[in-house]
Amino acid sequence: MSEKRAIKRCYYEVLGVERDASDEEIRKSYKVLALKFHPDKNLDNSDDATEFFREVQAAYEVLSNPKERCWYDRHRDALLSGADKDSIQDFNFDILPYFTSSCYSGYDDSEFGFYTVYKNVFDEIVKEDTPYYEDGQEKLPSFGNSNSPFEDVHAFYSRWESYATPKTYSFLDEYNTVEAPNRRVARLMEKENKKVRDAAKKKRNEEIRTLVAFVRRRDKRVQAQRKVLEKQREEKRQKSAEHRKKQLEARNKELEAEAIKWAIMDDLEQELKEIEEEIESKESESRQRRKKKNKSKNKTKVDDQEPGNQVDSSDKISMNQDQTNMNDENNSEDEESSSRELEDSELYCMACDKLFKSVKTFSNHEISKKHKANLITLKQVLEQEEQLLLEPDSTKT
Known about the structure:
Blueprint (H helix, E strand, L loop, with lengths): L1 H4 L5 H5 L7 H14 L9 H18 L2 H15 L33 H16 L20 H11 L22 H36 L1 H86 L7 H33 L1 E3 L4 E3 L2 H8 L2 H28 L1
Antiparallel strand pairs: 1-2
Helix pairs in contact: 3-4
């Protein structure tokens, strides 16, 4: 019996099931055989029972795992022909020749064009990984062609840039856990095997991701989209700058209008202040003149009441008349002098149609913005009137 089992048998044959058997059929067959050939139940033939029991366990461990079963189905013939499991190298599509621009000719969809070459490369990788996909796992998107919409291109790079191989790389295991003398040793063996598998997975993932980055940098579809995005960003930047410029201009106009408004108010305040000062000055002068007149009148009355100044009634009447005439003359003279002073002090601005009481007020008015603006308007009106007066003469000529 041991001589027969030295020859490697198919795992399906060991468990007594067909190659298309379901997981439930494999599990039931394993339970029956495990109970039948357990070493504790075959004490009279423990060596053969132990060997067959280990063979049944090894077959069940492989066929009960979907990924392990997939790998076994692919390499079943090599294993049955006598090849050792450790010597079998699982197929890995070699992507190194595609890390150069010499592998394609032009950016088109021809047989050796950029998009055809790399579409075939990524399709081959998907084909290689498909047997290891779990049930319901979605395949990676296709590379597409030169006319693929950018939504599909973006979806492709988004998925492939985080590529993770579904392969188990169990063919790289250094130890066969079935041959372990106890569970502790089996766990240590599995730990070492896992290190080797993880290292192989990491290497493959880095290779594929590096290839994806290499292709992306040369993909004209990505470059065209980048230009579109840059153009959109530049347009947004220009619109933002123009909007900001308009806001600043509007704000400056508001400030200028505010400044002109305050300048006009300052001019008006200054004019009002000067007018008030002029009125106060006139009133002060008028009060002083009245005081002087009152003093002179009082002095005259006192002189008339003194004893040495007694005169006849007829003389008093004549003196009163003379005094009255003199007062009238003085009043008329005062009125004439005050009118002359007023005429001299009153200055008229034709542009603004204003009358000023002093030279100082008029001088301040002349330097105001309002006066200058009115003066320009007056000049334009006079020039238009002069032109209208000259037009009949030119017509007659």
